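Letters spell out the chain; backbone shape is given numerically. Take this protein:
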Amino acid sequence: MAKITGSSYVEGNLAPIREETTATELTVTGTLPDFLDGRYLRNGPNPIGDIDPATYHWFAGTGMVHGVRLRDGRAEWYRNRWVRSESVAEALGEEWAGGPTHAGMDFAANTHVIGHAGRTFAIVEAGSRPYELTETLDTVGPSDFGGTLPGGFTAHPKLDPTSGELHAMAYFWGWENKVQYIVVGRDGRVRRTVDVPTTGMTMMHDFSLTERHVVVYDLPVTFDLEKAGEGKFPYTWDPEYPARVGVMTRGGDGRDLEWFDVEQCYVYHPLNAYDDGDHIVLDVVRHPKTFATDHHGPFEGDPLLWRWTVDRIGGKVTEEQLGDEPQEFPRVDERLTGRRHRYGYSVGFDPATQAQAQAEAGEDRMRRLAMPRALLRHDLVAGTTEAHRLGADVEPGEFVFVPSGPDAAEDDGVLMGFAYDRSTDRSDLVVLDARSFDRVATVHLPVRVPQGFHGSWVPSAG
């Protein structure tokens, strides 16, 4: 199991846990709403082997999926399972299930977990394929969507709420100056791919989708062959690389692709995007840079919420900062993916901590930025942001919105996510009313859930 020494990205609640757990009939404080029938799932890095603090990068840790099954007001189970790539299976003394990999790359997907076409997938970017999981999070094996996925996939697909199709933007250093736009049908098979040219071998973590357009972020983090050869995380900040946003129509072949310059920065996660006449509105969390001096994780300057408005007629992008709260992991009501939204939610960092951190040097500041303090609720119409603390010692992870019904208002539902309490060294699944932020219910877990990346609410079929 993991040997933890020397790296700030394996300390505190970033430290990996060492065991898989199955717990049933979990204790619940409060009342779980009856409309919650499904699984809350979340993925994140949890190294299984020895860690070299000189080279370990947070993004490279072995994937571990955590899940809680909710039904009839009960929390039926909690499970955490490593994603069984070949090396993980070998480390656990198990036989690898096998399956289709891309370009010899077999990675235990560690970034996101989704449900699509009645199946569960742990997903990651940079050329690796998804890993299919069972209902109870055991590994089935790598998936190429029934032989239809030509390469790797992405950590951030977008589900179109009308068509039910899954849209993705995949990148891989071996493709050199291009990325690939992918559309996966409701049946779980790829029905369309489009090659999109880029300036170089960029790291395109996410993209945006509107009702009419696909938006790509060609930004200055690129593949470094020398670092890859040294066994280090291979992507780094490139100050000479132009920062730009690309727009193309969803149904086209990419020949109508238009590029628009933006100030140098990096975007890991858009909140949402929508068409507004001849303009496209992009709400994004903007990092001033990443991987420029810290080559172990992403925190390098304050990530802030910005609105970029693409003026296709005028050929420019207007950039507007929407607040001064450092934040990440933005989420929106997914029924409004690609549509005009009012509300958004993200994980914030305590302003007092940020002010103190401003006076401190390099890695100490990055370490503070890696410790979330509050949940933020954005009202993009009123232009307000509210911060909600879950407790003095509580570190929330990403929270997802679940509507109370298919026709419920945009803020009528709950937010749910894992939260770690330093005072008990345990985590809970916390359920909040999305409108008031009052705590609806707390599912008490028997273990700590390390800070990870992204998750999904996967409702039960039928």
